[in-house]
Write a structure and sequence with these properties.
transport, membrane, 310 residues, three-stranded mixed sheet, ferrous iron transmembrane transporter activity, cadmium ion transmembrane transporter activity, Alpha-lytic protease prodomain-like, 2 domains, 9% strand, Cation_efflux, Alpha-Beta Plaits
Length: 310
């Protein structure tokens, strides 16, 4: 079992345990904010299960039916997880409004509620950090979405805990559903950002400007050996970044030399950015530029490179 699958399984175990505890305390206290946290954790559990299976599928090698691999399963997982967060948020808001309309008194178990929330926040903080580190190391969209689920759970659990503590001190029960609504709004904001991040690769959106600059710099390291390059296109599927471009080489350059340059550029890109697949299309220069005036038929490759700088 690889590291991605292990942390995904850890997330499932953590979420299941917290759901049981939150539901029990929520029923005992009658707190809608604790119950809303249990609902949130239930969605987190579903998301963790989805992430677990998606990272297992996405790691499968390319096959005849899926020549570009299975990476987009992770993006689909991220979209589904985002939608689940939206659903959970609306459920929390609806239940909170009901609580405002029909308020109820707290009971003797209320003090236990904020203690459980602080413990829950601590557990989720540890687990989310572990998942997030693995997600960044493996460049996994599904795990990053799962880590975001748990990260929001840390903030919401702390919010509920503080709210419950204030209610226990002030006896102002109306704060309970208000805290729950504020938490739901925060979750909606986080979900929107995650949905955008997961959905864009499904539409083959370009890589970020920073990543494109890295690619251009990696290609430019060999500018003394080619004329120019253009038509740079990028996209991402799961953790794999697909890059293709057109490289214009001197008209007298041999196929062997051109192929060697392509290999060096591809290796340079791969060293600069992990999880890449590079495709370079060669074109012969038709501008009769300075590089084209030197024929490799009359000089070795080293002499050809030196002549460019004379």
């Amino acid at each position: 079992m690889n590291s991605k699958t292990k942390v995904a399984r850890l997330s499932i175990i953590s979420n299941f345990s917290l759901i049981v505890i939150k539901l029990l305390i929520g029923i005992l206290t009658g707190s809608v904010s604790i119950i809303s946290e249990a609902i949130h954790s239930t969605m987190d559990l579903i998301a963790s299960v989805i992430a677990f299976f998606s990272v297992r599928i996405s790691d499968k090698p390319a096959d005849e039916k899926h020549p570009y691999g299975h990476g987009k399963y992770e993006n689909i997982s991220g979209v589904i997880e985002s939608i689940l967060i939206f659903i959970a948020s609306f459920i929390i808001i609806i239940e909170s409004i009901k609580k405002i309309i029909h308020p109820s008194e707290t009971n003797n178990f209320f003090a236990m509620g904020f203690i459980v929330m602080f413990i829950s926040a601590g557990i989720n903080y540890i687990v989310s950090n572990k998942i997030y580190r693995t997600a960044k190391k493996q460049d996994s969209v599904a795990l990053e979405a799962d880590a975001l689920h748990l990260k929001t759970d840390v903030y919401t659990a702390l919010g509920v805990g503080v709210g419950l503590l204030l209610i226990w001190i002030t006896k102002l029960n109306f704060l309970d559903p208000i805290v729950a609504i504020l938490i739901a709004v925060f979750i909606l904001k986080e979900a929107f950002g995650m949905l955008k991040s997961a959905f864009e690769p499904l539409l083959d959106a370009s890589l970020s400007e920073i990543e494109i600059n890295i690619i251009e710099n990696a290609v430019s390291d060999y500018r003394s050996e080619y004329c120019n390059f253009h038509n740079l296109r990028t996209r991402k599927s799961g953790s794999t970044k697909y890059i293709d471009l057109h490289l214009v080489v001197p008209e007298n350059m041999s196929v062997k030399s051109a192929d060697e340059i392509c290999d060096e550029i591809e290796e340079n890109i791969e060293n600069s950015m992990k999880n890449t697949e590079v495709m370079i299309h060669l074109e012969s220069c038709t501008d009769n530029c300075d590089k084209c005036r030197y024929s490799e038929k009359a000089m070795c490759r080293e002499e050809f490179q030196e002549s460019i700088f004379r």
